[in-house]
Amino acid sequence: MQIAGSGTPISTVLFDLDGTLIDTAPDFVRCLNLVRQRYQLEPLPAEGIRPHVSDGARAMVRLGFGLEPEHPDYVERHTAFLDTYADHICQDTVLFPGFESLLVALEMAGIPWGIVTNKPARFAVPLLDALGLATRCSTLVCPDHVSQRKPHPEGLFLACREVGADPLRGVYVGDHIRDIEAGRNAGMTTVAVRYGYIVNPAEVDLWQADHTVETVEQLINLLQ
């Protein structure tokens, strides 16, 4: 397999997790509203939460309670949200439609695929287990495994070492500007996706990814 039109064989394909490989928004929506209910607050609409899922727990606490880390109630709300999410880690989370076909194609071609995410291992590991992806994923790099998070390239370099791949022939796929910056910093071919939790699709063009796709089907065509 190779990037369409490049003529260069792909050494590995690495994915961001939330908003790129899997749709975790339904569980984030449920968990945030469960915590809001605990504090006698009305539920927030799913469409208002979904665009912020890729920004992590801090964004959820800011959205759900209007709190920043320096607020005296922040730690309590942040902990409550994370504990609730851990208890409901994979009720409705699924692969984005079409991704199973892509993963099978990579596996049949003998190209290792993996995940480099800012999601802590506490959540990423059981999530992949629940989705049946743990034994298929060649590498999982979380913040626990590196000293610097994306957009620093440390995680991508570690993932490439673990699968024995040349980063310069690797591909990194993500739905956030930090993903594209991390991939660029690692010298990898970058692919930005618009189908995840993008608030303003036009902003993706400003990230200067090597390729941009609207759907998983376009991503499959690009890699095959």
Radius of gyration equals 17 Å
Largest sheet: 6 strands, parallel
Termini Cα gap: 5 Å
The count of DSSP E runs of length 2 or more, i.e. the number of strands, is: 8
Shape: globular
Which structural class do you get from the secondary structure elements? Answer: alpha/beta
The main sheet orders its strands as 5-4-1-6-7-8
Commentary on this structure:
There is one protein chain. The chain has 224 residues and is of the alpha/beta class. Helix content is 40%, strand content 12%. It is built from 9 helices and 8 strands. The strands form 2 sheets. A 6-stranded parallel beta sheet has the order 5-4-1-6-7-8, with helices on both faces. A two-stranded antiparallel ribbon has the order 2-3. β4 (113-116), α6 and β5 form a beta-alpha-beta unit. α1 (25-38) crosses α3 (56-65), α1 (25-38) packs across α4 (74-87) and α3 (56-65) packs across α4. The longest helix has 14 residues, at 25-38. It is globular, with a radius of gyration of 17 Å. The N and C termini lie close together (5 Å). The relative contact order is 0.18.
